[in-house]
């Protein structure tokens, strides 16, 4: 069992979702659907529910919507994290409400493959780029 601080034991599915969220390297993201697919169970809504209820103890900003829109109500906090981690962003058009950028999903999306201890490519030589579908 991983060490996520809660007063009660986490449901097994929630534990597994949070474990995946902790694997996402700085500067990269996975969608709610990516995590469900990676686990082989549930769907984007189930992953989103886990993140809403228990995600505060993990890098929640790395689990995102597939369209790259920032989490409503948490845009500025997430943006601080993205900028600190050099997560690829697409600047918002002047017509976009609040001029809040979106994630550049083509470049930021992580496919869940292993990374090395320094956050670089793992033993497979993969750079972690691309998305799995």
Give a quick summary of the entry.
With 133 residues, the protein is mainly alpha-helical. 35% of the residues lie in helices and 6% in strands. The strands form two sheets. A two-stranded parallel ribbon has the order 1-2.
Describe the structure.
With 133 residues, this protein is mainly α. The chain has five helices and four strands; from the N terminus they run H-E-H-H-E-H-E-E-H. The chain has helices spanning 12-23, 32-39, 44-54, 75-85, 105-108; strands at 30-31, 63-64, 89-90, 102-103. The protein has a two-stranded parallel sheet with strand order 1-2. The longest helix has 12 residues, at 12-23. The relative contact order is 0.16.
The shape is globular
Helical run tally: 5
Low-confidence stretches are 116-133
Structural class: mainly alpha
Order of helices and strands: HEHHEHEEH
Radius of gyration, in angstroms, nearest whole number: 15 Å
Indicate the mean pLDDT.
Answer: 83
Question: Major beta sheet, specifics?
Answer: 2 strands, parallel
The total of beta strands comes to 4
Q: What is the distance, rounded to the nearest whole angstrom, between the alpha carbons of the first and last residues? A: 29 Å
Going across the biggest sheet, name each strand in turn.
1-2
> What portion of residues belong to β-strands?
5-15%
